[in-house]
């Protein structure tokens, strides 16, 4: 047992339960609604449920909470299963569905009717809301509340047989319309929906509500600890009421923890869907949103996501987690695993005038500075090379450490060069920088001079043209989730595309990874950032690279700069 890794208040509850009952066999579940893709918030819940099961030698079920066919889709089921497996978790036995229990749930509903604890109501949805009252005013009883048991059974069957239109009738629990907990004011248990269901097809036209299905499904699966987020705290009264009054054998206990809120991010599937439907982002796997598939496409690994979930911990405090913490988790890993190489995002040409045009040298460079096991690759050095446009300034300014006329820099792994003149096109753009190459400087410190700064470069004979996608936050504000009009805070520069080069000598290594989302190849393009291949938009002859994360924590640098100003 790795107690260090998982030691939260839920572990303490489980430890106490185990003290009371040595034979307790822990059973948790992850209950997604298949109405969208999973996101980093779900990952928090997945890690909690699966890690606890692992820690205590228990089991974790995967159960789709599929009570609303209107919003659900088989493609979401498949993506959710894929993401959980990709995170490295195995659910107990086969996939379960709340819909597996629809027949049993129907029987439990009838049981409540027979006990006089449920009734068929014919108020409209709006009237039900109106009659429910507010926090300060009690609710009002429905005029249909005192129907006889026989009548309720008859009408509930009528609902089931499709003899009512949608919205004409529903089944409600008969609890207390003046309860201080609004949830307990005769909550709806079943509603009519003429909609084929992805699992049960056309069998049913009545569907249980989340509250009715959830507790009973937990009970049927003998879930020992039903873990959910804090907004379900109130629902616990109903959870327990239903279990108590249906006389089920097994009574699971619900415990709540705080949701994950992440800076600059939306974590509501409904709102994420709006972003997709309005074409603000490309889809559920757009690298700018923190869905598992978006993060994966951006180059995040399962281990980095799990490390993040471990770091944020499980508490009852609602906080907004810094985005830089998520980035820290992937950067830490990629620093160990990414292959170092050079790439040019915005190329500018350099001609080394004192080298012959047939000059060609091959340097063998390490794939990782501290890990020789990661091997080496070759780079080619010739008289014409590209450097980054931002590494050159026509006029030297004090403190500028890159190349400018009359100044020197060192080419990474190669020579010191000095710029002598530039050539411009008719639009005043620099198209060539002529430089002197100090051919005695390879691997040597310059005499009587300070070492110049080092920049990256690629020979014109070693260029592979590619597209780079640079991502920034999708929102300009830290907490878009709290804004009603969150769409007005979209950052127009959340995606910038650049067309540049990577080293062609890497092409063979890359080819086998292009379309493989399970086995990502990650690069640290020196001085630029960590990148991965976009397995969706890349083609054999057209590679697209996504920037996973910057080399340093730029958000915090930016933030500190802003607060200093
Ligand atoms: P969303 O608002 O994104 O649709 P949801 O809660 O409706 O979220 P479900 O599919 O019902 O999504 O969630 C499955 C499980 O994941 C639930 O147990 C839920 O509590 C948990 N979960 C969802 N969002 C978060 C989050 N942000 N942080 C932690 N757990 C979450
Ligand atoms: Mg939900």
TrEMBL record:
GO terms for molecular function: ATP binding; glutamine-tRNA ligase activity. Residues 26-335 form the Glutamyl/glutaminyl-tRNA synthetase class Ib catalytic domain. Transmembrane segments: none annotated. It comes from the Bacteria. Pfam families: tRNA-synt_1c, tRNA-synt_1c_C, tRNA-synt_1c_C2. Keywords: Aminoacyl-tRNA synthetase, ATP-binding, Cytoplasm, Ligase, Nucleotide-binding, Protein biosynthesis. It is an enzyme of class 6 (ligase). It catalyses: tRNA(Gln) + L-glutamine + ATP = L-glutaminyl-tRNA(Gln) + AMP + diphosphate. Coiled coil: none annotated. NCBIfam families: glnS, PRK14703.1. PANTHER family: GLUTAMATE--TRNA LIGASE, GLUTAMINE-TRNA LIGASE. This is Glutamine--tRNA ligase. It comes from Buchnera aphidicola subsp. Uroleucon sonchi. The lineage of its organism: Bacteria, Pseudomonadati, Pseudomonadota, Gammaproteobacteria, Enterobacterales. The gene is glnS.
């Amino acid at each position: 047992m790795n107690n260090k890794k998982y030691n939260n208040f839920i572990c303490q509850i489980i430890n106490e339960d185990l003290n009371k009952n040595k034979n307790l066999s822990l059973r948790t579940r992850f209950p997604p609604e298949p109405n969208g893709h999973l996101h980093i918030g779900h990952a928090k819940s997945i890690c909690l449920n699966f890690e606890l099961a692992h820690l205590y030698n228990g089991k974790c079920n995967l159960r789709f909470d599929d009570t609303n066919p209107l919003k659900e889709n088989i493609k979401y089921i498949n993506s959710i299963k894929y993401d959980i497996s990709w995170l490295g978790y195995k659910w107990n036995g086969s996939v379960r569905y709340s819909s597996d229990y629809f027949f049993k749930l129907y029987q439990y509903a009838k049981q409540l009717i027979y006990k006089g604890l449920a009734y068929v109501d014919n108020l409209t949805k709006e009237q039900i809301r109106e009659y429910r009252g507010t926090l300060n005013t009690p609710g009002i009883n429905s005029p249909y509340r005192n129907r006889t048991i026989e009548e309720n059974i008859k009408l509930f069957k009528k609902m089931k047989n499709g003899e009512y239109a949608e919205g004409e009738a529903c089944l409600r629990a008969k609890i207390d319309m003046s309860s201080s907990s609004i949830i307990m004011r005769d909550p709806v248990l079943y509603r009519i929906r003429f909609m084929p269901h992805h699992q049960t097809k056309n069998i049913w036209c009545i569907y249980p509500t989340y509250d009715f299905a959830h507790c009973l499904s937990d009970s049927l699966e003998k879930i020992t600890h039903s873990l959910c987020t804090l907004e379900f705290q109130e629902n616990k009264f109903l959870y327990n009421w239903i279990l108590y009054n249906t006389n089920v054998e097994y009574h699971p206990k619900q415990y709540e923890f705080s949701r994950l809120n992440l800076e600059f991010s939306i974590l509501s599937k409904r709102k994420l869907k709006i972003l997709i439907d309005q074409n603000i982002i490309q889809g559920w796997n757009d690298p700018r949103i923190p869905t598992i598939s978006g993060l994966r496409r951006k180059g995040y690994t399962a281990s980095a996501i799990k490390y993040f979930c471990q770091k944020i911990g499980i508490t009852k405090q609602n906080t907004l987690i810094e985005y830089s913490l998520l980035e820290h988790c992937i950067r830490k890993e990629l620093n160990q695993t990414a292959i170092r190489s050079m790439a040019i995002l915005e190329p500018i040409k350099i001609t080394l005038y004192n080298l012959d045009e047939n000059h060609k040298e091959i340097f063998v460079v390490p794939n990782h500075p501290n890990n020789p096991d990661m091997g080496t690759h070759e780079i080619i050095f010739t008289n014409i090379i590209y450097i980054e446009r931002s590494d050159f300034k026509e006029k030297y300014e004090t403190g500028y450490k890159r190349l400018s006329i009359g100044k020197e820099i060192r080419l990474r792994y190669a020579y010191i060069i000095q710029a002598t003149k530039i050539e411009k096109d008719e639009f005043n753009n620099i198209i060539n920088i002529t430089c002197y190459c100090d051919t005695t400087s390879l691997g040597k410190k310059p005499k009587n001079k300070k070492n110049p700064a080092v920049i990256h470069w690629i020979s014109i004979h070693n260029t592979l043209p590619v597209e780079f996608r640079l991502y920034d936050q999708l929102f300009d504000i830290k907490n878009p989730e709290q804004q009603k009009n969150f769409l007005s805070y979209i950052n127009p520069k959340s995606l910038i595309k650049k067309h540049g080069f990577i080293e062609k000598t890497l092409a063979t290594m890359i080819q086998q990874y292009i379309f493989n989302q399970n086995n990502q190849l990650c690069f640290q393009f020196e001085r630029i950032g960590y990148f991965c291949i976009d397995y969706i938009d890349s083609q054999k002859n057209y590679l697209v690279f996504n920037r996973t994360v910057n080399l340093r924590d730029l958000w915090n640098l930016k933030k500190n700069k802003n607060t200093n100003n």
